[in-house]
Amino acid sequence: MDELQFYDKVGEVNGWDFSHLQVETEGVKWDFYEEVMKRSKRSDVLLDIGTGGGENVLRIASSLMFLVGIDFSMGMMETARSNLRKSKALNVRFPQMSSDDLHFPIDFFDVISACHAPFAPTEVFKVLKNGGTFLTQQVSEADKLNVKTAFGRGQSFGEVDGTLKERYVTDLYDAGFSEVQSFEYDAIDYYQRPEDLLFLLQHTPIIPDFGKRERDLDSLNDFIQNNRTKKGIRTNSKRFLLIAKK
């Protein structure tokens, strides 16, 4: 319930749209939704799991026949539907739904995507067409490692890097996928202002309960001083990409 309330709050505030943040990144090897588009045709039907505020789905809507974005958060879905009305796209729907129980016909989607969102491999396999493609980008355990080290806690802090990737690969094969490719990168982020980093920590689960512990702001100030460079406040973004064929 705490996690659901957190995502509801973020959905109401910004729909996971961090486009206004001033951050420069070096070493990113792909754009996730560009990878989705490379494997999609104009006639395809796409499912986006954990769609958040729907910004990415709406950005690529004109390139596919039909798109469905789902999220378990009501706050996210309210934001997504608001964005849909503003976009006036006619080929997109945003039903609230859990990724653990996909209420769609069997073998229905040509392409399924999940960016930084949990998914159930057996459910994905069930609703993906034979010959279809599933793509997911996830956050590695070593993401924002210097931030989590400074606070002494954080998302997946202390876990062996690569554990989640290997588990997902195994689960996808167990679900029935015939081929799973994996890729990863460890990019450097330079946040231009302290308020950019503050916004990130307030609107993501990188540091659980950020701001609720007595020394959190002191830890943030120390982190900024110790990691400030000419390019900005330095941290990292570590991601992995899985591409599975049914």
Walkthrough of the structure:
By secondary structure, the protein is α/β, with parallel strands linked by helices. The protein has one domain: Vaccinia Virus protein VP39 (Rossmann fold). Helix content is 35%, strand content 25%. It contains nine helices and eight strands. It has an eight-stranded mixed β-sheet with strand order 1-7-8-6-5-2-3-4, with helices on both faces. Residues 10-15 have low confidence and may be disordered.
Task: Estimate the mean pLDDT confidence.
Answer: 91
Number of strands: 8
Task: Evaluate the radius of gyration.
Answer: 18 Å
Main beta-sheet annotation:
8 strands, mixed
Please write the CATH class name.
Alpha Beta
Shape: globular
CATH architectural type: 3-Layer(aba) Sandwich
Succession of helices and strands: HEHEHEHEEHEHHEHHE
Terminal CA distance? 34 Å
In short:
By secondary structure, the chain is α/β, with parallel strands linked by helices. Helices cover 35% and strands 25% of the residues.
Key features of this structure:
Rossmann fold; about 25% strand; about 35% helix; 9 helices; eight-stranded mixed beta sheet; about 250 residues; single chain; alpha/beta
